[in-house]
């Protein structure tokens, strides 16, 4: 994540659901990763879990706008395009402020709303598809590097075409293994230079020890 001036945000750990379900689970994970050098932690869990982290002095980066873990209710779309939704996003930001979060990922909201929220909260707003008015800009490495050739989100910008490189490497990978199989089947591998040698006298002594001669 980069700010407009080029300064980088410090190491951010990600506390996700799955093995983490209770506030104690999240807290234990946060303390574990703090000991490993984590500066702060992304957490999109419920407000009560986020509050437990904040109450225990764990720096929390929350999530507002399009929240992937909430898409059952929103779907994969921009959030905050209507006055009602914009107010809901605003209220969420204020709730996060109240419990002590110091930042939030602001994902796929209108650029005007993203700028307004960023100017009217003490939290650091890390924008992804939230326009240039966010405090910092955030993109997935897969989007920056062009790792896939399928659907790309509107906010994604690709700087390289790794998908073409991966496709080329896959073609080369398959060809190499086919050549290896053909080499083994034809007797082209292994050749003498690939083998471990043994002196005749040692092999003969081995056979004598087994009483084969």
Can you give a write-up of this model?
It is a single chain. The chain has 213 residues and is α/β, with parallel strands linked by helices. It has 2 domains: 2-138, Phosphoenolpyruvate-binding domains (TIM Barrel, Alpha-Beta Barrel), CATH 3.20.20.60; 164-209, no CATH class. It has 8 helices and 7 strands. It has helices spanning 23-35, 47-55, 71-74, 83-99, 111-119, 141-145, 162-186, 200-209; strands at 2-3, 12-15, 40-43, 60-65, 103-107, 124-128, 136-137. Helix 1 packs across helix 2 (47-55).
Number of strands: 7
Q: Strand sequence of the main sheet, in spatial order?
A: 1-7-6-5-4-3-2
Question: What global shape is seen?
Answer: elongated
The CATH C-level class name of the largest domain: Alpha Beta
Main pleated sheet: 7 strands, mixed
Q: Count helical runs.
A: 8
Order of helices and strands: EEHEHEHHEHEEHHH
CATH level-4 homologous superfamily of the largest domain: Phosphoenolpyruvate-binding domains
Rounded radius of gyration (Å): 28 Å
Structural class, from helix and strand content? alpha/beta
Strand composition percent: 5-15%
**Helical content, roughly?**
40-55%
Question: How are the SSEs ordered, and which strands pair?
Answer:
Elements: E1 2-3, E2 12-15, H1 23-35, E3 40-43, H2 47-55, E4 60-65, H3 71-74, H4 83-99, E5 103-107, H5 111-119, E6 124-128, E7 136-137, H6 141-145, H7 162-186, H8 200-209
Parallel strand pairs: 2-3, 3-4, 4-5, 5-6, 6-7
Antiparallel strand pairs: 1-7
């Amino acid at each position: 994540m980069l700010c407009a001036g080029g300064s980088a945000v410090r190491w951010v750990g990600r506390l996700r659901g799955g093995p983490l379900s209770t506030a104690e689970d999240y807290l234990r994970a946060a303390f574990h990763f703090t000991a490993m050098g984590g500066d702060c932690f992304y957490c999109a869990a419920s407000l009560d879990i986020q509050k437990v982290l904040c109450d225990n002095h764990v720096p929390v980066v929350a999530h507002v706008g399009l929240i992937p873990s909430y898409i059952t209710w929103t779907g994969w779309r921009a959030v905050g395009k209507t006055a009602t939704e914009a107010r809901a996003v605003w209220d969420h930001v204020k709730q996060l402020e109240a419990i002590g979060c110091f930042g939030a990922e602001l994902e796929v909201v209108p650029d005007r709303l993203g700028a307004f929220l960023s100017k009217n909260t003490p939290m650091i707003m890390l924008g992804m598809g939230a326009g240039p008015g966010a405090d910092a800009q955030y993109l997935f490495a897969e989007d920056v590097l062009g790792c896939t050739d399928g659907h790309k989100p509107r906010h994604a910008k690709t700087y390289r075409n790794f998908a073409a490189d991966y496709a080329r490497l896959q073609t080369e990978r398959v060809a190499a293994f086919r050549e290896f199989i053909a080499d083994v089947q034809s007797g082209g591998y292994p050749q003498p230079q690939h083998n471990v040698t043994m002196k005749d006298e040692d092999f003969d002594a081995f056979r004598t020890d087994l009483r084969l001669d």
